[in-house]
Here is the input.
Amino acid sequence: MDSIEKAIYGLACLYYIIIPLGYFATLWLPASEMTGKGTILVTGGAGYVGSHTVLELLNNNYSVIALDNLVNCYAEKNDKPESLKRVEKLTGKQIIFYNVDIRDKTSLDKIFKVHSIDFVIHFAALKAVGESVQIPLTYYQNNIAGSSTLFEVMQSNGVKKIVFSSSATVYGIPQFLPITEEHPTGQGCTNPYGKTKYFVEEILKDVCVSDHEWKVILLRYFNPVGAHESGEIGEDPSGIPNNLMPYIAQVAVGRREKVYVFGNDYPTPDGTGVRDYIHITDLAIGHVQALTKLNDTTFFGWKAFNLGTGRGYSVLDVINAFSKASGKIIKHEFVNRREGDVAASFADASLAKIELNWTATRGIDEMCKDTWNWQSKNPNGFKKK
Ligand SMILES: NC(=O)c1ccc[n+]([C@@H]2O[C@H](COP(=O)([O-])OP(=O)(O)OC[C@H]3O[C@@H](n4cnc5c(N)ncnc54)[C@H](O)[C@@H]3O)[C@@H](O)[C@H]2O)c1
Ligand SMILES: CC(=O)N[C@H]1[C@@H](OP(=O)(O)OP(=O)(O)OC[C@H]2O[C@@H](n3ccc(=O)[nH]c3=O)[C@H](O)[C@@H]2O)O[C@H](CO)[C@H](O)[C@@H]1O
Here is the structure.
């Protein structure tokens, strides 16, 4: 063959063999593998758990579309939520953001039409237990009607893989400890917020029965606390914090005078309530692991997993650990028990270890250190002043 014949032969090989092979290879690869690991729609993505999860998703090569109606997160006018701007800075990656309410079916549908979404992680909800007792209809409308609208839009667009943010609150008063996923749910849910978590779990189970293509993971969180190790994102409650860790943090930073310890006469080692606190980064990684499970071709239907450490700490343990981490004296006073509280609650998280290949690795000292890092760098949360 002379050089012209060789060139023609080479071009023919390229045209008839190599290019078609490349084309068929792209057909064979799942769409998700062409765009990193896939595209995730994260509802409530600007919130506390949402923003930390978005960060872990981006670091694990997923593309993220976040939506949030800004009801419980901070954003400057016409700008992305501050939490997500900081996640973009930390990861060096872009987040597509929509200021949309999950009850707005038309806008939701547009998002599904514009983007090729592989999975949904559903965080958007109202979450204050006390408030839910005052305005139950708002909670049912937002958390249940909103979730059901989201599922309808998913179904009509053929997106049937979801991770749902549930809570240990679905177990009600523990009948045994540690709590396994087999523990009955719904029976002891005493407040509307807890009931919305239980009802949405039940809706998703029914959807799985009606359509065998659905794959649903229910993640039941124990007590998420802490912040990203950078101190750039963290929990930013509006008003007086309802939960222990953010309250302690605000006492340490001088925004509040002392912690009110709700009861010291529980049947626990020091008389104060015992909970299974879990670092927010461990919790966020649990969602990444759940996506891997959703990709498992042998998995269909629904499955619930506890996300906790399996260890309980009392209120006084947490106050002492925070005092050590911050170098501050945390003043506290014992007051009456809070209505609806249980003496102790902690998880058996062995199912998540076996099936999600996930275990919490960060202990109470790291939870307090990272909370303090976030709180001391951002005494007023995401707001500048
Ligand atoms: N933080 C916890 O201790 C905890 C424990 C168990 C379960 N959960 C669940 O995890 C999820 C996230 O909790 P979080 O602590 O990040 O709360 P969060 O309030 O920080 O985040 C929720 C986000 O959802 C948004 N949102 C609320 N209603 C919406 C709607 N109708 N449309 C669009 N966006 C909406 C809010 O603006 C907020 O940014 C919630 O479903 C919550 O119930 C949280
Ligand atoms: C009744 C209630 O709100 N339950 C919610 C709360 O669970 P928990 O009540 O488990 O969380 P929490 O942080 O409100 O309380 C943890 C422990 O600290 C005690 N404590 C709390 C605050 C305080 O100022 N002083 C004090 O002593 C409380 O009695 C409990 O023993 O948060 C969870 C997520 O984290 C879930 O959303 C629960 O549904």
